[in-house]
Amino acid sequence: MKTLMLGNEAVARGLYEAGCAVVSSYPGTPSTEITEYAAKYPEIYAEWAPNEKVAMETAFGASLAGRRSFCGMKHVGLNVAADPLFTLSYTGVNAGMVIAVADDAGMHSSQNEQDSRHYARAAKLPMLEPADSAEALQFTKLAYELSEQFDTPVLLKMCTRIAHSQSVVEPGERVAPAPKPYEKNGAKYIMMPGNAKRRHPVVEERTAKLIAWAETAPINRIEEGSDHKIGIITSSTSYQYVKEVCGDRFPVLKLGMIWPMPEQLIRDFAAKVDLLVVVEELDGFIEAHCRTLGLPLAGKDYFSCLDELSQNQVAEKLGLPHGVGIQVDQEIPARPPVMCAGCPHRGLFYTLHKLGLTVLGDIGCYTLGAVPPLSAIDSTICMGASVSGLHGFLKATGGEWDHKTVAVIGDSTFMHSGITGLVNIAYNESNATVIILDNSITGMTGHQQNPTTGFNLKGDPCTKIDLESLCRAVGIRRVAVVDPYDLAACRRVIEEELAADEPSVVISRRPCALLKYVKHNPPLTVNQDKCVGCKACMQIGCPAISVTGGKAQVDDTLCVGCGVCEQLCKFDALRGHGEV
């Protein structure tokens, strides 16, 4: 029975139908929902791993044991998992292993634009790239067949638009292959230099076989057109734009296997058209391959390597009528991102800002502490970089910044890659103060559990990592816990830890205001007679507070009664319901 599915949901369905047994991932937009949907199938063991490297190694272990496995991540997560990725290309697999990576062209929820197709080429691994939900399901199942046929992990490349759009899918039944027996084989799986040297030729031979397969693979298809003045090579979201704009006018070579790419098929297609045009987002990956074949073409000289493409851009560059979408004549007011009303990070960042500290930030919703009016973060690079960066900053400045610089990192990010940075601080003895923003969840990607929450992916109780004990175990003797809703306590604790001549950790602990189990106080009200319009309450940037007619106003549909703004009002104009 046909149904609408998100692209990520369709991948999860493909995992189910292909008989995948083990799923290990780390949440990251736009890949997160694959694992969340997979966890709904009781036949699949699914988990959140502490980071992507661990997830990939877990998936390899399951494959080695003879069960089909999967791990999913966003594009920057593949950077974290690159270490096992490149060596798994040499070892190959036992049972099928599929790795999904979701790119975020346009940086809707990412710190960079990164084209993961380069990883497929560099690691010499096959990569499939679906263009809708139906293909997401089909290609996931195909990936397992290729994995076992060619003895290789297979990359499945998603992107924001395919992952988060819906299209028609026809689900099938689960067909779970019999588990493959594990057989000890050191020459294949122990990658010491002597064995690895013998495995490299196997990888090159495999690539040649995959190229031959790609020449006639149905997922690389030519769609004929009436006008052969232009021939278009494309894939993924760009294929959808091309078809919306061109219909059947120009012939199209739609690539489903994006690496390795066919050679003769592309040459034959190019020979049928007057001008070859490559339409692809981000880097000129297909274009570079075509140029190595000696083919003249148009590509990135027409289509930018920046941001997403659109139907209008494709139409304009191809000289076709365009104007898709609603045209707005007036300027739309900007809606800058802001932390939620009652966000536990707000009080902490307000304190850091008032203290005038230099703050090395990290990846999470707390990165919004960088925007006005809080403006409390000086850098954000990647998961865990705040802690390691703080150590380097302090070592480089020789004590000059020791008592006025901190790092902030979330609880999930700390478990992901902050621990080793803290070990470095303890081991190499920098006078660093690290603030762990413990909101009891992985907030930015939609409230996923992590090792500090006490629950696993399926919501079952599990081991809860004690952050205080962990920090002490790695050599940090000074560990303090503070409630970020208490501004006076925040300031006192941070000043105390900064004044100490040894490394310290401050745990700012208060659950995310959006968690369903969190009970809020009644919203605050404004005593209009006492309010003088000083706007002190606006300094925290809470979306529940505004000023109208020179007086503060509280939106009681947003306010959670956290009381942070109440602590800023010198005129006692902000009060909880029932207070006088």
UniProtKB/TrEMBL annotation:
SUPFAM superfamilies reported for this sequence: 4Fe-4S ferredoxins, Thiamin diphosphate-binding fold (THDP-binding), TK C-terminal domain-like
EC number: 1.2.7.8
Residues where [4Fe-4S] cluster 1 binds: C531, C534, C537, C569
PANTHER family noted in UniProt: 2-HYDROXYACYL-COA LYASE (PTHR43710), INDOLEPYRUVATE FERREDOXIN OXIDOREDUCTASE ALPHA SUBUNIT (PTHR43710:SF5)
UniProt function note: Catalyzes the ferredoxin-dependent oxidative decarboxylation of arylpyruvates.
NCBIfam families on file: IOR_alpha
Protein's name according to its UniProt entry: Indolepyruvate oxidoreductase subunit IorA
Organism, as annotated: Candidatus Flavonifractor merdigallinarum
